[in-house]
Amino acid sequence: MSGLHAVAKLAGVSKSTVSRVINNEYGVKTTTKEKVQKAIAECGYMANQVARDLKSQKTHLIGVITPRISSNAVAQGLEGISGVFEEAGKHILLANSKQDNGKEIEYIIRFNQRRVEGILLYATHLDAPLIEAINQSTVPIVLIGQDGSLFNIPSVIHDDIRVGFSAGMRLIESGALNIGFIGVNSQDIAVDQHRFQGLQQSLQHAKQISPLFHSRGEFTIESGYQQTKKLLLEWPQLDALFCATDRIAIGAMKAITESGKVPGKDIKVLGVGNDELGQVCTPSLSTFNYAFELSGKKSSSMLLDLIENKHADVSKLVLSFDLIDRQSC
How many CA atoms does the CB half-sphere of 180 hold within 13 Å? Predict the structure, then answer.
């Protein structure tokens, strides 16, 4: 059996580089990794994974906590996450909190017990118990979707206030005068509070009246449908609806159609997220496209940097968005 020296000589690299490849350490170029792996195969060099982990104190495991597996944002984000960590030789442990705040904390504790090297958390809220659990974690945690920078928690977020503002301006440009908003749980600062805040600011900027209402439901088509059925009875003057997510908006359009009105004509509708269902519904849904896959990539890279340097500066990254014009607005 050949040793590190023989592998390094054959690959034309240093022994330390061979060691980094064997231990799946972050930062080795793909071309270099391929040369070393080829040399390992040719030399018949074998290494015991358990022994490596015990020596290096690395498990190569990353914990990812999501609120909903069915979420379009999570599904696209995981594409970006898996690509970055696969390249870095890391393996993902996926946990679904099912939007249970307590389970988010439970999984943070469990992942620490499993000796993961870091955690990505798709956060739906930020309260004192969660912040305390993050601060007590022995491994770095990066938030996706909520801004934890005020609490020194690294975060990758979307520009939710500005998307709300852009939605309001788009609806005003379409001729709307009576605009309503359907959000989600008020604990979700980004999706509910910030998107509504942006809508309010746009109406103030245009010197229009405040939104007709701020209704709250769940992240589902059915919730959007049921909410809108009630709201149409309470607010017959409604001529535009901004929904916090595409799935809420799709449900809303179904209720509008059943009421005898035409979405996109009698009542303009805008969503957020560019869910593929919005392309095939009738009318097709105008929406805002978020860089969900990019958020997965950026948050993963941020976490890898923190794993390699535990004293790295805390950072916050804000990602932009694009308006997708279709038939509903």
Answer: 22
* pLDDT tens, residue by residue, 304-325: 999 988 665 668 999 999 999 9
Question: Both tokens of residue 197?
Answer: 């805040």
Helices (H), 206-282: 221-234, 246-258, 277-280
In angstroms, the CA 257 to CA 260 distance is 5
Q: Rounded distance, CA 22 to CA 48, Å?
A: 10
Name residue 158's beta-bridge partners: 319
Whole-prediction pTM: 0.80
Beta strands in 25-128 (DSSP E): 61-66, 91-96, 118-122
Provide the phi-psi class of 2: left if phi over 0, else alpha when psi is between -120 and 50, else beta. beta
What does 166-206 look like in DSSP terms, one character per residue? HHHHHHHHTT--SEEEEE--TT-IIIIIIHHHHHHHHHHHT
8 A C-beta contact, residue 272 and residue 247 = no
* Tens of pLDDT, residues 109-146: 999 998 999 999 999 889 999 999 999 999 999 999 99
